[in-house]
Amino acid sequence: MKKVIVVGAGLVGCFCARALSKYDIDITVLESNGDVCTGISKAGSGIVYVGYDSMPGTLKSRLCIDSCKDFAELCEILDVRYKKCGSLMVSYGKRADERLSKKLDHGRIGGIAGLRMIDREEATAMEPYLNPNISTALFSEETGTVNPWELCIAAYECAANNGVEFKFNESVCGIVREDEGFKVETNKDSYSADIVVNCAGIDSDKVRELCEKPQIRIVPTAADYLITDNSLSGYVNHIIFHEPEEKSKGLTIVPTVDGNLLIGATERQASAISTATAESGIGILKNLCSEIMPELPLNKIIRSYGCMRPNPYYVDEEGRLLEEKKSISELMLLEDNGLFSFIGVKTPGMTMAPELGRYLTEKVLGVLGDIRERSDFKPYRQGITRFKDLSDEERTSFVMKHPDYGKIICRCEQVSEGEIREAIRRGARTVEAVKRRTSAGMGRCQGSYCRQQIIKMLEEADERI
Amino acid sequence: MKEYKLLVIGAGAAGVTAAVAAARAGADRICLVDRDSCIGGVLNQCKHSGFGVGYYGEEMSGTEYAKRLDDMLTQAIDGGADIELRLGTMVTKITENRHAFLASQGCYEEVAFEKCLLASGCRETTLQSLCVAGTRPEGIYTAGEAQKMLNIYSRDVGDDIVILGTGDIGQIMARHYLDEGKNVIAMIEKSDAAGGMERNRRNIIEKYDIPVVLRSTIVEVFGDSHITAVKVRNLDSGEENIIECSTLITAMGLIPERDILDWDEKKQLPDWLTMCGNCDYVHDIVDSVSLQAERLGVTLAK
Questions:
Q1: What is the reported pTM?
Q2: Do both B117 and B165 map to the same domain?
Q3: Contacts across the A-B interface (CB distance below 8 Å)
């Protein structure tokens, strides 16, 4: 059987693995961290974009538009919470007005449904807490949101369920071309492969250069986000994109599937690969909030976080940046004779991820030739039942059947012992991994109430193994 | 559906004392609920002394105070008080038509009540809510969590400790760590004097000579997987210092826990709902909680 190695278990890696697993191929995913979705994927805005931001006709635009159309169905299949809340891009002046109408044009050319310009009156009726001095607003009915961890974990569980092998804590340190295919070396082992798919995110340029000459390199920038308490659920109904008058980053507010508001994102120089937040960035966000949503109670913020953005630039064979100073906006999938590298996938990376998997699979099949499609591929995946999301009637019968689901461990997010046990059964080995799978510890007390109890449950699970 | 006359949420000093007082004053069909597996609430993690003088007339530890509550409740129930104690049970919701939803192992139940006493205590302010810049490593605990680690779970927090805030719990934790031979590098305080009760300042900060950095706060956290240092800034001069540490404990104050209430804080509470103990306002000592609860319990029985 032909063998494919996928490097990196972020959103792109997991969706590539899932798409490849529809075919009769032996697939192994190598991830340098202890869990999926730990790099760039873990800290995005969680927005499912409709695709009017990219130039019409480009690959990026096409993949984003196609992916968005299928997102509701995909989330149904993967049992991922998806909220088609729509979005409102707001302008407060002339320059931004022009940008909005350009985006509307992009949308029309791309055939995007549910897009229209609305006036101040309609916009403030939709979002009463917005600064009312709106000039124009671009309403998009089809924009949605998911939790990126949940989506990535779902793709991972689905791929694993279809026979993909995931190796955690294995970082790739060598890729050697052999007569037929590759030898991939990690800190622990070595693997032969016919095809290598490089989805290593912020390190994707370095991974490619393990066996190729430099062509594109990533210059990372950093971003900061704030998250509010879920008691503000309903304060904002649509995703708000604020298009600024000046040439700077505007504000984005996302009413998440968990009921929190996610407020982002700055863009600043990154001195090192780090997800640290910056005081300046947090200050900028707070200032923008008081400008765009003046009454938003900033004392409801429960945490901040930072993340990296991988900006791809063309370089020469020595790795020196080429003349043009602008980062590449087009999607970069480099093909080097059996080595496929996604380099610098950023916004709308999460939206595109499912389509990227499909697109990559076509390319791989093109190289491998005649590969049979599996008849036993299981597209579905069942998530962990969430006590919080059940109706009172459902809770009554579910708790009767599964007693542990009546015992609440995380008070803020109302996560039960049953959910935590199920997350551990599915492989969560750290408090962080439990949090991503169940939301335990994500609330206003940030785990100070439940963390010790979860550690105890993890210790008990370790003893059983 | 079960119908109660009085639903008491939280079986700490406030809830237990109020339930017993209400029963003694003639109330029946009282339901006393707590999510923990025993009564006493936060008292169970307070092994230090300093409790009870104001209410019982003698000094004891928090756990001993909890034992008194337990005895009082048992005695009352044995003596015929109509109190149904439901431990390991969390009230997930109360509705305006006076129904409550109770979740426990194997059971999710809707009950009706006439009056409700909210005695759910406090939460702690977290470092995360301040949006302090930097990384988000392990090794950062609220004082309450640190106390739980020490007295309930027997887990070590690390040796070189910085404490943000000089409230009572922070000071009590500092004393404990110093007695254990750990290094309390500094307590950081934003106001111009240390907080907490006078007796704690005298017996802890002064007696142990703990360095208190006044008019200062933490503005950045360092460390990838585990905390390695914090940046402290003077609020007046803006001068910054980096302090290396292995542990950061935050003792920045308590917030009444009223998560169960959907009502806007500005709106008036419905007449069937009363708040008691630290969930009403933050009391300095538990004895005053007991006194308030006793009074309210009698009122609620009417």
A1: 0.96
A2: no
A3: 106
